[in-house]
Amino acid sequence: MSTPQHPSPQAAPAWQGAPGPAYAAAGPAYTSPIPIVRTHLGHAIASEWTKIRSVRSTMWTLGVFVLLVIGIGLLAGAVVAANATEGDLAGDTALSFGFFGLLLGSMCVITLGVLTTASEYGTGMIRTTMVACPSRGRVLAAKAVVFFAVAFVVTLVSSGFVAMVDVGMLGDARQPTGSEWLKATFGVSLYIALLGLISLAVGSIIRHSAGAITIMIGVLLAPLVIAIFMFSSSLEDLRQALFEYSIPNQLSVFYSSSLSDSGPSGWDPLWIALGVTAVVLGGAFALLEKRDV
Amino acid sequence: MIELSGLTKRYGEKVAVNNLTCAVRPGIVTGFLGPNGAGKSTTMRMMLGLDRPTAGDVRIDGQHYDRLKDPLRYIGALLDAKAMHGGRSAFNHLLCLAQSNGIPKRRVHEVLDTVGLTSVAKKKAKGFSLGMGQRLGIAGALLGDPRILMFDEPVNGLDPEGIHWIRNLMKSLAAQGRTVFVSSHLMSEMALTADHLIVIGQGRLLADTSMADFIAQNSRSYVRIRTPQRERLLDVLHGAGVLVVESGSGVLEVDGDKSEHIGELAAQHQIVLHELSPQRASLEEAFMQLTAESVEYHAHTDTPPGPLEQFERPGPQPGPQWGDDWTRS
Q1: What's the complex ipTM?
Q2: How far apart are CA B28 and CA B173, in angstroms?
């Protein structure tokens, strides 16, 4: 009795010639001619950069983001410039007109953040990713680094552009100080990028794009909406807190035009966002290690 | 070399893989066989560090998978054809995998060429047919030029040409000295590709044997006879001490390779034979017997034939059985 006779290997397929002559010298155990590289976070980052730039959803979300931030920011500046009378703008700086576009645009960053992690679970790509890089923490860290950098740079460029044009357009308004410039461009970009990073972590925890996006939109809008309709006077303290710590209000703090007088001020929103990011991302790391892919 | 020792995976009360101990050796194609739901995929996922074992251990060349710094250089795996982002082009899909393991970009072009996808390298993966998706998955497995290759049900849904291609690919990879581990629920597929067999059922190891041994042990040979002078032949065979089994529709069967002997006896006694043909019970039947008790999802037929009954009465056989060609050699 012999092993099965196999169909004759006629018409050798292309792959036989592909990897070169080194195969011929293979001994009992195969050794590859490709040099061995000890991989590190840098390799994972290069990989994640290829991933994020090679899908349509990145272009869509960031395209809409830039459109919203620049479009609404310039529109608001232009309308005010056309209609404001002398003295209307005396107390405020033109920077604050960047707020509306960024508030809407933050939803795009949230969506992209969620998709960066959750879409891999939706498509099954995560299994391929984790087989290629079994150090799960490294994968999530690389995603976080790449996404944060992309979100920060895109926000900084578009919010900086809006700020410069608006300030130039509204010569009547008070000229912003250096620290106001810093907060309304650099600061707010960090805040938006952190918001995206929280979404990325939530996407990794929930593993479902639609679910995670819904949760993050809820986190973005619910506190403010609930506060608006919380009429009962016994809940006044809660209403005030929800209001002050709602993301839209925290975002407005960067333009020193907070909707309320108390609550977070200065750079507070950034520290709050940093804390929340650390906690949620930490949870995502822990769950990723613990769960099956 | 992949070593499994006491590998166990539980999902709550349900045991998917139960204390599995075996080894996958280099230089041969090892078939991993079991009915649907036997725990093949779960085992492979644990080998690749995707699922954490409840107990036990998997070692790849002596190391745990998640300790491998450049795993694609050790193991190339095809888990399922659609484990990729459909919106990404074939080239970018392979590029991001290559980058994560520090594999040079030219290797992406090489493997695309190997699997014959160069012309569609810039096309999105979601437009790919099942066969093309499978080829892209295999390109990913070959990317690191690894010593170990794992394929989970690689021929599922492929056309005959694709199946032929994958069979030859696996054989030649093993011939180069690589470890090839391939799962399937089709015995017939394994018989054509595998040199060694690991059979599991309900997560337990049922057999760990070479293909040749499995065939030797499990393929029963017999002679099939049809004659218009049935009673006379029975008498003659009886007289000669040959044990005859009557199966349905007037067919007689004799165990073993005795066709010459029977033919000569019939000629001596001038008995007309309409058929005298050596037969082999299919390995598929042997496999089904082996796993009969462990099949998780039984389909109920009206008269479920017991495994033994099947063996006794093979019933009408419309054409040559698979495996006929190789057992005659």
Answers
A1: 0.84
A2: 9
